[in-house]
Predict the 3D structure of the following.
Amino acid sequence: MALPLQNAICEKLGPVVYGIDVPSLEHVVVARLEKSGQSIATAESCTGGLLAGRITAVPGSSNVFEMGLVTYANRIKTELLAVPEEMLARVGAVSPEVGKCMAENVRKLAASDFGVGITGIAGPGGGSREKPVGLVYICVATKNDTFMRVMRPLGRYPGREQIRRRATSHALDMARRIAALREIAAMRERKLEEITTLSDQVRTEKEKLAARQKSLDAVTRKLATQKKDLERDARNARSEIRRMSEREKTALQRKVAQQQQLSVAVSALRKLTKGNKTGASFSSSTSGLRLPVASGRVKRYRENMAEIVGPKGAHVVAIYEGKVVEIKRNRITDKFDVFIAHGEYITSYANLGAVTVEKGQKVARNQQIGIIGSGVDALTMQVEYKLVFGIYPPDPSQRLLAENCFKK
C-alpha cells in the first residue's frame, strides 16, 4: 500500500488502528506492556481462559503476564476472587458489578498493573430478555480506575466461539489503549522531572557565578553592580510582562477558570454540610493554625484562597478537624482536589499529587490527607510544587480571608 494512502487511512480511523504489519493484537499488547515495564492478570468466566491463551501464545509474554484464572462457577468467583455472595445473588454473575469486582481483585491478587475481568453469556442457551445471549461485560482495572465495555448481541447469533473471540479482542484493545495513556502520563512526568533537574542545574551555576563575582569585586563596585543588576532586572521584568506569550495568557485564563469551577463545586458541597457536627468549633475567628503544607510558604493570598509552595513530596495536612465530603480527580493532570467540612465551613485543598484519605472519613487537626502536586508557574513557566488552599463560610456573601487562619 502506498505510504500516503496508508497514512490517510490511519489518520481517518484514529485509535482503532493498533499497528501496521504486526502479527496480531495480542502481540501489540504484550510488546507495549513489556516496553513500559507493566504487567497484566486475567479473570475469565464465559471466555474460559481464551484471553490468557491469546496472551501466552505470544513469545516473551512471561515478562508481562502474571496469572490467569477461569472462574466459571459462582462458588469459585467467591473463593478465589472474593466476589461477594450477596452481589451474585442480587445482580447475577453476568453484571457490571461482578465484572468490575473480578478485574479489580485479580489485579490485587497478582499485584499486577492491569487486571481484566470478563463475564457474559456466550450461548447458545442461558440467555433471557434482560440478559440475552451475546451480552458480555469486559472490565480492565488499574490502580486508580476501572474501565468497562459492554458487548451486546448484534443481529443473528454468530456462534459461541465468535462471541468469545470478540470479547477477548475487546479486552486486549482496552488494555492497549489504557497502557498507551499511561505511557503518555509517564512521559509527561519524566519531562517535568527533567525540567526540574535542569532548573536546579541552572540555579547552581548561577550561584557559582555569583560567588566568583563576589570574590573579584571590591565593596564599592559590588554595591554599584547590585544596583545596576536590580535596575536591569526590573526593566527585564517589565519587558517580559509586555511580551507575555499567548501560552502564558492561556495558562492564566485556565487558572481563573479552575478557580471558578472550584467555587461551583463548593456551592454544591454547601448543601452536604448542613447540620455537620464534625469540627463544628471552627469559626470565622479561628486563627493560629499551621500551614497545610509541611515546610511550605505562602506564595500569595487572594481573599479566601492561598497559593502555598513547598518541596517535592511534602505532606499536605488538614488545618482543622473535620470530615472529608468530596474528593475529585482531574483525569488530564491526574491531580486531586479534597474538600473537608468543619461544621458548616469548608476548606479545599487543590492540586494534590496523591491522597491518603477517603470520602466520608473524619480527619484530625494536622492529619495528613495527601502529597503536594507539581505544576507550572504561569508567569515564569518553571516547575513548582504547590497547593491551592481555600476556605468557604456557610454564607456565600460572608467575606473570609485565608490569611486570618494562619495569623499567630
User: Anything to note?
Assistant: The mean pLDDT is 88. The radius of gyration is 28 Å. The first helix runs from residue 3 to 13. DSSP finds nine helices and 14 strands in the chain.
